Amino acid sequence: MWYASNIDKKIDTIKRRIRKTVMKEQYDSALLLMKCLANILFSYNQYYKDDFLEEQMEIVREKLAETTGRDLQPAQVDGASIFFYDGVGVDDGLEVIYVKGLLTAGNHVIYLVRETAKGHFPILLSLLEKYQAEIVYIPAGLSTLEEYRYIYRTQNRSDIKAGFLYALPYDVAGVMTFMGAEHRYTRYRINFVDHAYWLGGVRAFDYCIEFRNFGAFISGCFRGIPKERILMLPYYPYIDREREFEGFPFPVQKGDFVIFSGGTVYKTIDREENLYYKMVEFCLSEFAHTKFWYSGRGTDSDAAELKRLQQRYAGRVFWSDQGRKDLFQVLQHVDLYLNTYPVGGGLMLQYAAVAGRIPLIFYRTIESRTLTLMNQEKLGIEFNDPEAWKEEVRRIIRDEEYRKAKERLVANACIDPENFEKNLGMILEEQKTEYEISYDDAGGLEEIQRTYLERFGKRGVEEVIGKQSYIPLIKVCPIIYLYSRMVKRVMRQ
Fold first, then answer.
1. Residues 309-333: what's their mean pLDDT?
2. Same domain (yes/no): 134, 223
3. Given 111, 190, 375, 389, which is the most exposed site by the fewest CB atoms within 10 A?
4. Which of 351, 88, 367, 348 is nearest to 218 (CA)?
5. What is the CATH number for 84?
6. Residue 276 CA to its chain's centroid (Å)
7. Is pLDDT at 132 greater than 90 in this prediction?
């Protein structure tokens, strides 16, 4: 596309500015620009590594070590502590099951998270407190350079035997800290954003933990990570089985067949074909006893098609615009889960499978397929032909015996907590797991890159990167916008 080369030129301009600020030893400004550029590369998503950023971070880290002194504490041979850097700080990610696995195995965990995350991870906090972990908060309001120094000091202790890096794609401070921990303790990166660019390359970890073959394929073939440093560990959804079902937000009668779907509403928007809502409408028009329930946040604009169906099928289409905390229990009470399209829901597929409900998938790319269930391609739940998808829906709804048999099949498609924790222990002790990796191309990579390019470029190159500041990114990268005024000043220096 014509704007791709234009975006690359703007990226090169930012790189020249980064190099200049590093040469001038303006490290605070340099790290800020690096963070912004990493966010741009993540949103642009045409490359899976950037050697320039890795090299410049290494230069800055070395220079800082010269001025502050090389006082890294060597790890003890019998060191028993594990450093867990959580750069996200929420309850709905992989950090919960990893920290739980580390704690229940008897490890002493030093858990570091930003102060701004307080209140956003109650489940994780209860686990940390129960097992008497050390909880350290990075103070709010620090610059990227100050954050790096704070993280560095926190993990600079001799009792740490391993460190887990759970970082957002543009987390300069966290990644740079782990770069400096080479040869001190064994470093693991948890790759939870495996379909997109992220900062850290091969310098910030000794082993990269993948949750599916698709991520391993990208890491081994495009990120330049040696295959002997890639480990496979599928994940499972953390479920509060004691939580009670909060009920249906609509009347359900005997004989109703309830189809459930969920996630942020934007995942269902397909301007060209509107295929997701055509599939929903097929279910409603073909079977009079079906009801459709969507649960997830979204704007009125995003939900326009959903509202249209509500009007057309009054009393049969329902939208809960707030996410449910009892998702597992919801899925136990419905009859079928319909995966979103064109962007699929990975965690929602797992909730459905564990609850024993068929997660029906229509896909055209990896983004809609997600591939988060074990042996997913063998479960008979994926379809990329609309007519084949419709035929499957007819059989599922009409043939209860067929549906129950398939539900039993998908119920075993997730790793259970015991196996996850056993394999996490193997990672710590032997740097391996029981799960083999296939590096076969699952297809769809070019389609993902094209989709990201369209999302990024349709807003206009000058709007995305800006004529003067190069970084007014409120509509494409809202997080960067928080830094935009500072970046303008840096770019003009």
1. 91
2. yes
3. 375
4. 367
5. 3.40.50.2000
6. 23
7. yes
Residues 85 and 229 in one domain: yes
313 within domain boundaries: yes
Residue pair 336/259 in contact (Cβ under 8 Å)? The answer is yes
Provide the percentage of residues in the chain whose pLDDT is more than 90.
66
Find the domain containing 94 and state its range. Answer: 67-236+418-430
| Same domain as 182, residue 136 | yes
Query: 204 and 266 in one domain?
Result: no
Residue 405, both tokens: 């048999």
Residues 341 and 409 in one domain: yes
Cα–Cα distance measured from residue 359 to residue 262, given in angstroms and rounded to the nearest whole number? 11
Is there a single domain that holds both residue 410 and residue 423?
no
Q: Where are the beta strands (DSSP E) in 274-404?
A: 290-295, 317-320, 336-338, 359-362, 382-383
Residue type for 28, please?
D
Q: Which residues are 261's β-sheet partners?
A: 294
Q: How far apart are CA 165 and CA 273, in angstroms?
A: 40
For 419-459, write each residue's pLDDT tens digit.
999 999 999 999 999 999 988 776 667 777 777 777 676 54
Beta bridge partners of 260: 293, 337
- Joined together, the tokens standing for residue 339 give 């995966």
- Tens digit of pLDDT for each residue in 155-191? 999 899 999 999 999 999 999 999 999 999 999 999 9
Omega within 30 of 0 (cis) for the link into 342: yes
Which H or E run includes 188? Answer: strand 186-190
* Residue with token string 């909730």: 351
Q: Which residues pair with 437 in a beta bridge?
A: none
Q: Global pTM?
A: 0.85
209 forms beta bridges with 190, 231
Say how many domains are in the chain. 2
Of 387, 414, 441, which residue sits at a domain end?
414
| In a shared domain, residues 217 and 349 | no
C-alpha–C-alpha distance, residues 450 and 158, integer Å: 47
In Å, the largest CA–CA distance within the chain is: 73
> Is 55 within a domain?
no
Residue 478 resides in a domain: no
Q: Which helix (H) or strand (E) holds 316?
A: none
Instruction: Give domain status of residue 137, yes or no.
Output: yes
% pLDDT > 70, the chain = 88
Residue 209 shares a structural domain with residue 271: no
Q: What is the helix, strand, coil percentage profile of the chain, to 5?
A: 45, 15, 40
